[in-house]
Amino acid sequence: MDFSVPDEIVGLCDSVHAFMEEHVYPLERSGETWVMEVGGPAYPPAVVAVQEKAKAAGYWAFHLPREAGGADLPFRHYVLVNEILGRSLVAPACFGSQAPDSGNAEILWRYGSEEQKDRWLAPLVAGRIRSCFSMTEPEVAGSDPKLLRTTARRDGDEYVIDGHKWFTSGAHGASFAIVMAQTNPEAESPYARFSQIIVPTDTPGFNISRGIPVMGDRDNHHAEIWYENCRVPVSNCLGPEGSGFLIAQERLGPGRIHHCMRWLGMAQRAFELMCRYATQRETFGSVLARKANIQDWIADARADIHAARLMTLHAAWKIDTVGAAAAREEISLVKFFGARVLHDVVDKAIQVHGAAGLTEDHPLSAFYRQARLGRIYDGPDEVHKMVVSRRILSRYAEG
Ligand SMILES: Cc1cc2nc3c(=O)[nH]c(=O)nc-3n(C[C@H](O)[C@H](O)[C@H](O)COP(=O)(O)OP(=O)(O)OC[C@H]3O[C@@H](n4cnc5c(N)ncnc54)[C@H](O)[C@@H]3O)c2cc1C
């Protein structure tokens, strides 16, 4: 694996850093909150203003192919840019790489019909609308999506969708949902029973019952949705009927590593705040930086971030060279390892700051919440460990 970085990518990273300083951190400090509401605008005006500047500078949707309206960076270079975006929680929306829109755009680009691309992908990539991804259900384990109960029954040239979903992030204010529903219950393999179906959020029967706040965050809530006799044309099926799992896998693999890239930047910023504070805060006759245990934390945090970064770069390089399916083990490794590193680094940074670290004067408390959520969304730690260990053990079983 070659660690050298082309000059143009070094230049791009420097410019993105400068853009963050000039436009994104001021937006973060302005405290302009993001209130998601049904029928509300996709983005608040202050975010739209920064998005326009990012588009004009060519810093838009780095992960998407150029023909789809993106900047077409290979994964290994996207790590270097996306970790910079990870430094601020408001940055992904400013650069057109906000989840779940980024993943939805990728699958629409790959599997969407021309009509679906015109109607949904083009305005999504342009940032004019938002979307959501509706898979997880409260009644069954999200870790084992074969158990999902939502059905899409065929009636003439329509699907009739019935089911109960939750944790559909960003549904408030989204224009459409991509819904995982059972279309082929007779298929022998449970993996061939589901499809992904585009449901405009103004379809009768798409009923949001509440926004679920998580760990005190009431702005970026996650929707609970009842699909009740919700009818959409069969032409809204994404890809061939029965390919829901295949498409979900295509979406989740790269989606997971996008999170890992951003966690590097979040951990790095927490680390910088910790180091700076440690050199300034004085207790019992010396600054914190002189205490052996704080030096120990700083060295451990540095090693952890470095290891997570190398693992992320390696997984990205593998996706670039042999594809996401062949990089499944590396993606799972860095998903649970990267989430734990972020969690531990932010935890140490908060501890060094004392009570100040818990306030919203710093981004640390919001980072801590992200770190905790990251150990569950896109597959809990235990599931990724299961994937990795099963693969390792099967190699031993095969001799
Ligand atoms: C912030 C956030 C945003 C999300 N956004 C979305 C979204 O936009 N769309 C969407 O569809 N879903 C979303 N989700 C849901 C997420 O994908 C699920 O929470 C996740 O797949 C786990 O499913 P579950 O919550 O049902 O937990 P369960 O599957 O019930 O698992 C519970 C616990 O059991 C343990 N466990 C599970 N399997 C194993 C195993 N094999 N071995 C050992 N232990 C195991 C784990 O510790 C796990 O945490 C989001 C979740 C969060 C937290």
Spatial extent as radius of gyration: 22 Å
Q: Which small-molecule species are bound to the chains here?
A: flavin-adenine dinucleotide
Output the CATH homologous superfamily of the largest domain.
Butyryl-CoA Dehydrogenase, subunit A, domain 3
Mean pLDDT reading: 94
Q: Number of DSSP strands? A: 10
Order of helices and strands: HHHHHHEEEEEEEEHEEHHHH
For the termini, the CA-CA separation is: 28 Å
Q: Could you say which structural class the secondary elements and strand pairing correspond to?
A: alpha+beta
Strand content: 15-25%
Main beta-sheet annotation: 4 strands, mixed
Supply the CATH class of the largest domain. Mainly Alpha
Count of the domains: 3
Percentage of residues in helical conformation? 40-55%
Q: Which second-level CATH architecture of the largest domain applies?
A: Up-down Bundle
What is the 3D shape? Answer: globular
Q: What is the CATH T-level topology of the largest domain?
A: Butyryl-CoA Dehydrogenase, subunit A, domain 3
> Counting H and I runs of at least 4 residues, what is the number of helices?
11
